[in-house]
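User: I'm putting together notes for a lab meeting next week and I want to include a structural view of one of the chains we've been expressing. I don't have a solved structure, so I'd like a prediction I can at least talk through. The sequence is below, exactly as it appears in our construct file.
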Amino acid sequence: MKNELKKFNTKNKSSSDTVKFTPKVVMNLLLNFESYDQTTATKDTYMPEEKIVQFNIGFIKLNFKGKLRITADRDIKNHVDVNNPPYRSYGVVEERGNILRFFKI
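Assistant: Thanks for the context. Below is the predicted structure for the 105-residue chain, given as structure tokens.
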């Protein structure tokens, strides 16, 4: 057994080259609907099928499958002030089986 271990160690001996590892990078993605506040000030919209989010080190592609309506509470009686849009847009799931996929590009 010692001989087999010695053979294994000799065969799998690392070279003198420096091993380089790419550093891990933590990218935080906060999924909310704030970016839709201007749109939902006047009308509802649906989550796009694909959205690309840019970071300082790369991109992440979001694929959405299903029906997600993005809306906000609007006062129907009063005219909507475009300069002062509503905040806290939210999503309403309109179809079962919604899937959100993340891809690093």
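A couple of points you could mention at the meeting. Residues 17-104 form one domain. The helical segments are 2-11, 37-40.

User: Perfect, that's what I needed.
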